[in-house]
Amino acid sequence: MKSPSTFARRCASLALAASVFAMPFAVHAEGSVSAAGITISTKGLVAVGRIPASQKDKFNETFGSGSGMAIDPTAWKKDGDAYTGALWLLPDRGYNVEGTTDYNDRVNRIEFRLTPAAGAVPAEKQQKGLEAKLADTILLTDDQGKNMTGLDPESGTRPASGKLPLLPQARMGKIALDPEAIVRLKDGSFLISDEYGPYIYHFTADGKMVSAMQPPKALLPMRKGEVNFSSNNVDADGKKPDPKDPDTGRQNNQGLEGMSMTPDGKFVIAVLQSAARQDGGDSGQTRMNTRALVYDAADIDNLKLLHEYVVPLPTFDNKGKVAVAAQSEIVALSDKAFLMLARDSNNGQGLKGDTSVYRKIVAVDLSNATDIANTSFDADKPVAPKGVVDASVKPATLTPFIDLNDSAELDRFGLHNGAPNDKNNLSEKWEAMSIASALDANAPDDYFLFVANDNDFLTQDGYQVGAAYKAADGADVDTMFQVFRVTLPGVKQ
Question: What pTM was estimated for this model as a whole?
């Protein structure tokens, strides 16, 4: 039994969590929830697949996996009881456990065959329901055709020019990009969101930058009154920025982590990973009030901010302390609702901590939230100082939808959460989501929800930027996909 003092502290922490974030549970039936006037439901996990950690891309560099994912609808087909298709998988900024590297940002095309399963799954088929292979890799370049880089933008900024705003710039004059989410447009081009900026970039189908969208001033990282995009990594001289954290704007490594286009193609929604510095992001226990930006996508190279909302991230009890589950990706259902993947950190295969406390997909309802777009909150006024939302603002509401740590579901596919910390323990960073229609005439609202991890390039057979490497502590993390069958009424791709 816990001592009274420990118990009291734990109760106080949970009370704080309840006071700063109340989550409405609009649950109708098992696996069924409401958001923005629609009822969505899940039919459970139906497939798991892997790409080995040792995979190399066509440039003979170690393949990194899902910071973001976009299904290619033109390649999606039903084949009897199975499906074939392709998706674009966006790797992170490169293998950088000890700092950022001059990794040329890129996107990978994955071709796959999906064979959904229901009920018990034979051991030999447990992780072969999605058979995926790397088909192509496209390098990203700036507007001048020069390679982009995952290096920290410690050299400052490239001045605004033409239709482009000032851009994060690393050593050697390269534009720095820490890519986190991807949208494939009908013409084959891409939108990619960034943590450094935090910007939304438009790239052609062959990877050349076309435009860049700058967020409201309140989200730009400011140090000593100047925009400074550094993420607190060392520069070429081994120095870090001063101060290490921005005074206001997005936190280090907490930029536009989630982005999605609505199924009708009319809107783009982007969400900060957690609260801006002035909104409680200066503390791990008060960073729960992030922001969702809703843009008019009529002119993709001139995205117009229409709406902006406070989104309260999930909080959970972590050893008697309030912890915040930062968001890792979103899937837009409409301009008023989206699915959001939120998770804890520092636990999972490849790390010393083995058991995740929180990994969930939640439904976010914006329909009754206060629109703060183009107000003083986009300039100098904090919307949630010290983590407490301004009294004039009503946040969005959240409802839990799918628990990625569900032991019963994981067990059906030979997976688990926690010890033993082996290859069947879920890795830390689940950061990619996308949907594709089930193409079922008897269930026209059914979709497959694809979820993938970001393996952080962790392998014992690595090669990148001209050098071989082995990840620390023997880490060898495969790219893994989980596929759920869900019902999403009114969502028409």
Answer: 0.93
